[in-house]
Design a protein that fits this description.
274 residues; T-fold; 3-stranded antiparallel beta sheet; 7 helices; 15 strands
Length: 274
């Protein structure tokens, strides 16, 4: 267990000899590397550099950062902008991200993010990007990659409600209700992300829905209940929880395009699956 990406990251793995422990260490180091690259809070991160240079000059970034931006733009386009990594000023004003003088200067949106060859990125207008809605899922996927490469036969990576597993292992998924934890699903060889005020996988709280902002209304989405998205990769599941939270069951066809499914808990008495 190690703190990273604003949560606690848990890695459990098994494999021959000492492969498991070495792979777990490598997986946790990978998660920390993603945080160093994509943290909004760290002024030395690549993301912070991109934000400082927005509207000025193209910037060369790590292939991982470029890949996350490409995936974010793909989902933004597919969801007609419902998933939007340029809502950071709203999060700053809400006190959910650290304040910055540039928060009031934003005049661009996701359509003004240009991905260039050789891992270069140009933000055409002043803007603030926040990858908090997708980078954690990417970090989980990279950790799983390290575990497989290290020879592990089964493993689970859980980063505060964003999790992925492989092998013969299965992972029970719980929601925290007023009367305690209730198992609502079981994950096998796949990924799942959760957004909810009181959602949890075992005892790990997931991202509050209050930190999801609707780009259409520019207000925090306020709802009781929870949404879970299962997908082949955690980066997809992570991003699509925001779309599912804002769009509701109407986004079923969009989820299907990415091989994903959602589970909505809209009432404490029952769950709704699509």
């Amino acid at each position: 267990m190690r703190p990273a990406l604003g949560t606690l990251v848990h890695v459990s793995a098994s494999g021959p000899g000492t492969a498991a422990q070495r792979s777990v260490d490598a997986a946790l180091a990978t998660v920390e590397r993603v945080e160093r690259l994509m943290s909004f809070h760290d002024p030395e991160s690549e993301l912070s550099r991109l934000n400082r240079e927005a509207g000025r000059t193209p910037q060369t970034v790590h292939p991982w950062t470029w890949a996350v931006l490409r995936r974010a733009l793909c989902i933004a386009e597919a969801s007609a902008g419902l998933f939007d990594i340029t809502v950071a000023p709203l999060l700053v004003r809400a006190g959910l991200l650290p304040g910055t003088a540039d928060a009031s200067l934003q005049c661009g949106n996701w359509r003004h993010i240009v991905l260039l060859p050789d891992c270069r990125v140009f933000l055409e207008r002043p803007m603030l990007l926040d990858l908090g809605g997708i980078a954690k899922g990417f970090a989980v996927d990279r950790a799983i990659h390290e575990l497989k490469r290290g020879g592990c036969t089964q493993a689970v990576v859980n980063a505060g409600g964003d999790l992925r597993c492989f092998g013969r292992i299965s992972q029970p998924i719980h929601l925290r209700r007023r009367d305690g934890l209730v198992q609502v699903a079981e994950l096998r060889c796949g990924a799942l992300a959760t957004s909810a005020p009181h959602a949890a996988h075992t005892e790990r709280l997931a991202q509050p829905l209050g930190s999801i902002f609707d780009p259409r209304t520019r207000r925090a989405w306020d709802a009781s209940g929870a949404v879970m998205v299962a997908a082949p990769s955690c980066v997809i599941a992570d991003a699509l929880t925001k779309v599912a939270a804002l769009a509701g069951p109407a986004c079923g066809p969009l989820l299907a395009r990415f091989g994903a499914r959602a589970l909505w808990d809209t009432d404490p008495a029952h769950l709704e699956a699509r």
